[in-house]
Amino acid sequence: MIRCVFISMCLASSLWAGDLFVTTSSSHQVQQFNDEDGDPLGNFCTVANPAGLAFRPLQTLGALSGDLFVASASSHNVQQFDGETGESLGVFCSVSNPGDLVFGPDGDLFVLSLSQHQVMRHDGQTGDLLGAFCFIANPSGLAFQPLKTRGSALGDLFACSASSHEVQRFDGETGEAMGAFCSVANPRGLAFGTSGDLFVASGSSHQILRFDVWTGEALGPFCSVSNPGDVAFGADGHLYVTSQSSHQVQVFDGQTGEAIGAFCTVANPGWLVFREEALPCPGDFNGDNVVNVTEVLLLLDNWGACGDCPADINGDGDVDVVDLLFVLDAWGGCP
Asked: 65-77 pLDDT, tens per residue?
């Protein structure tokens, strides 16, 4: 049982970001773009007044669907779409004036209710309402802190409050308020970077601000974006930001914040998300399509602090027992 818990904590590391999906309020669509060059791949699905969107993790409580969930502000529900084809699978759950949404570490779906000033929790498989998770005045963006960041098991929920100009923190299991984490003028989207630090879009300052993951200390402006909306990190480690005034998704170096340029053009872009796609065999370090003693020896050879090495399966900067358990779970021939 303990082993299963550890494996579930590092499932995200067996995934890589695929194509980019962006909501557009003017055409009531979710549009798809190639993750390598930003080429438009067309309308993925149609949603009246789309708000937040999220892909169900490819492996959550045994589910392998990876479907897309999109909040519809005008129909007051969250709609489910096939993650590969965009085919409508119907209404997943009802939420009064829904906003951003995110899947939690336990697989449940958390949705902002803008009119009720709450984060509503729904069963991630059935959509059944599990109740209000926490209260927040004039909420905007949502993000769960990764379960494993620099060796510390966390998973708290961070939510932007537009009226208090704060990012507030809540216990990821109970929803108990833990107070203001940092101050941001007119906060919008937010995301945790590869370093673990928190990045928040400030609508008032037209900047993406960076905060220390442990203390909430302001580390200064990371980059400047005209009227920023949502933020997300791609598989390349770069930061992608919707610019509502330029009608673009802009890209910035994930380490320095240096502007790389416009990634794609979207009319009135809102929220964005990368589709997760499963790696063919994440425990196979040497590419021989089998996980065996060779992987264990390579893992032991890299044991300890590790920058960017294949043995660090969960990407937390350390090769440790969590990575070993992942190798043992994948033991044998690759599918």
From this structure: 589 999 999 999 9
